[in-house]
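Inputs:
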Amino acid sequence: MADFMATGVSGLLAFQRALDTTSHNIANVNTPGYSRQVAELTTRQAEQHGSGWLGNGVEVNTVKRMYDDFMASQARSSSSTFSQLDTFATQVQRVNNLFGDSSTGLTASLQNFSNALQSVASSPTSIPARQTLLSQGQALVNRLQGYDSSLDSLDAQVNVQLEAEASTISTLATGIAKLNQEISAGYARSGQPPNDLLDQRDRMLDELSTHVNVSTVKQGDNSVNVFIGNGQPLVVGQTASRLVAVQDSFDATRRVIALQSPTSSIDLTDSLTGGTLGGTIDFRQQVLEPARNSLGKFSVGLAQVMNDQHAAGMDLQGNLGGDFFAVGPVAVQASGLNAGTASLAVTRTGAGALTNADYQMTYTASGWTLQRSDTGAAVTLSGAGTLASPYVGDGLSIVVSGTPQVGDRLKILPTANAVSGLSVLVTDPSEVAAAAPVVASSAGTNAGGGTITQGEVLDASNAQLRSTVTIRFLTSTTYSVNGAGSFAYTSGGNIDINGWRVQVSGAPAVGDTFTVADNTAGAGDNRNALRLTAVLNQPVFSNGTTSLNAAIGQFMGDIGVKTNQAQVGRDAQKVVRDENSAALQSLSGVNLDEEAANLVRFQQAYQAMAQIIGVADKMFQTLLAATRG
Amino acid sequence: MRLSTQSFYGSALSAMLDQQAVLSRTQVQVATGKRVNTPADDPIAAVHILELERTQLESDQFGKNSEIARSRLNLEEQALADAGTVLQRVRELTLQAANTATMSDTDRRSVATELVQRRQELADIANRQDAVGEYLFAGFSGLTKPFTVSSTGSAVYSGDQGSRMLQVGQSQRVADGHSGFDVFMQVPRGNGTFATAATSTNTGTGVIDIGSVINKAAWVAGDYSLNFVSASNWQIVDAASTVVASGAYTAGTSISFNGVQVTVSGSPASGDSFTITESGSEDMFTTLDTLVSSLQQTAAMPADKAKLQTALGGVLQQLDQGADHLLGIRAEVGSRLSMLDGAESIRDNLKVDIAGSLADLRDLDYAEAMTRMNQQLVGLQAAQQSYIKIAQLSLFNYL
């Protein structure tokens, strides 16, 4: 006969375990990363009797953790992507807000400057109008530099963040390696899964995924190997590598992420994706550096159009105008790893061909090559890299000196420092070149109906620019210049001499003379100021297709679209993450109602088992009473 | 599907937080009155808004430029009107002095004295300055006094021929004045084709009129001389002394050649001559100078009177030309002022257009926003209430 007392005890024990598990579940209902556990009940080994196999009760085979590795890795990868997009969206939102206010923005500053130029054009002799122009120029510089320093401080925060991320990731990696060890030991000791340790490890992996995208491979001893980037090992068994934020080899103030093992240090910055780390790196690469370069390019364009036209004018003191704005130079950074001594002298050839990109110049066995840092596209260079024939490409002129070694690299930042070096060079209001340096006149004695335009400057550097030139009509169709030569006359045709251009139109009579002379007395002349207002609206960027204002619009639109896309992308990814996490939760999460029901169920079963023991006891007493007789 | 207790609370909470975020966005819109607060709210509209606000600022500046141009043109207009009044007074005095029958040399000298005053008055007008001290009629050389008139009456113009353009619209520029060269120095001489004068050595009493053009096409530009080879015969010779025309003299009968005609009256003596020179231009001060010096000559003899009459005829012609010239320039000023009016109405229309576009692009539709806000409030309340209700449900309540 089967020992149903023993069966009863097996039931009591089994349901106690089940109740233990249920209460463990209830206790951990709010524990993050906790996976529901289930006591798996199985029948005990039956006994053979003559009448057949008699059951021997119940036992707990194992306490099972309700978990699915596939669903977990889905949830992890979607949460990694979400935190990348979330970080990116939060950061880009800050840039968006920085440039958001249109009434104090760059467009308004530029227009105020342009309006101040208009005021000078309207009242060229007015010193207050000229002073206002200088103040508005300074305001524009301040606005740009304000933005630039805000971007700089965001950049500094990125560096701090990278350091924090690297240290968090390293800590988590160490924790995972340690848990790997404990888990392997736990399995080895009992042959049963150490569920709560597994939960802890999975929780750390979840946490790690919100910092950076990882891939995991489970090993035979139940440890997990973790890889980041392009498969670089972060945790192998019980050893963890360290992720550190190190100085960029090109720029000591910039941090890059490197994987350090005792023997090597590999720069992983460009291969890391996902998580807050990936989002921060993306933000720096896709928003921060392009934004800083855009502002720089804008400054270069502004300085170029203003300086070129200002130099063609004449100030109140009768001197030719100098540069109006100064702009920061091209930055060149040699890698600290370079074996050679090559250095580059880089200047800008013009805003038209400049891009928003940074560049990398590499010395290969076949010579120097130039690559865009953002797309990696090679830039075709003309020239030989010498002073006489510099390399020219993408708006840059590059002169190489020193001796390079193969593999040496230098980074070129064409516009990054432009804004920080921006300043208004004209300090004296009377030095604003509002006038044109030459003025044309017709002789009072002219009998014909010819008229001459007031003249415009084509080349201010012409040494003879301001020399007096007399155009005298020899016949009604020919004229001489300064008494020499005979040139054919076309009404309205351009007459270009000494770097200026005039047009004579109408029907001049024989002997009529027109004079183009120095305009030293022309304090009230506003021709150059008018041209300055005009060039501000002329296309200068992208090979003469984009004006300063259009460039601001493009820049703002770009920031707006990036922010908007990041927000939409984050919201969409949030849904994906929530779904994946809900799917995993539906398997491994604790439901209190379910646990309550289990509590009732197992309690009842436990009570029933206790009754069986009671019955067994009564039967035993009955038997005793019978034998006692 | 099983629902874990944690994810129930989690998702209910995050739904509420989302509702709150949406509500707070709407609240910001209502508080600022703007639909687009940062470029990300609507990138395309944000770029449009930038451009529209820029155009507004630019248009305001064009308005200021317009006002500056208008005030300068008004000053010029006033100066031109004053100059016209001076010329009118000079003309009256000249007519008075031309009456050789009643005016004595002394009378003419006293007229000449007043004319010297008028000449100074005209010079003062030509040197007039605006409120900030810039000379109205100096061209670009606004800080240089443009006219210096010597005591003998000859004027030197030290300005230039520049004329400043002000931007009053996207593509509209208006000149804010005329140079003194154009206004005072470039009065066409004579009748616009030629000018007549008597030679100072004439001894007869012949007086030449200002002449007229009968066939402009036949006119051969150049300087001519009408010579009386005898008291009754004349010939016209050109600059190369070639005889162009000749005939017998009858007093008061017109003499025609090359499409023009002049009339000589009185009795010219043999050897007298008159010049017929191609019109160039003459400045107003020279005209007044000629007038003053003519009136200061004694004219007791008939021959002198004849010369005086010829001279005064020429001066009157020149004064009329001057008045016409000023009127022409005033008409130009008037048309510039009306251009300013036109530009202003274009700007006003643009302003209305921009305000409308900005309202569409940037500004909030309050009715829509309030409706939306109410919906969102109801949504948030419903989420909160249902959360509380559902959270109360638990099997543990019944154990």
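Helices of chain B lie at 5-32, 43-98, 105-126, 180-185, 284-296, 302-361, 366-392. Flag for discussion at group meeting.
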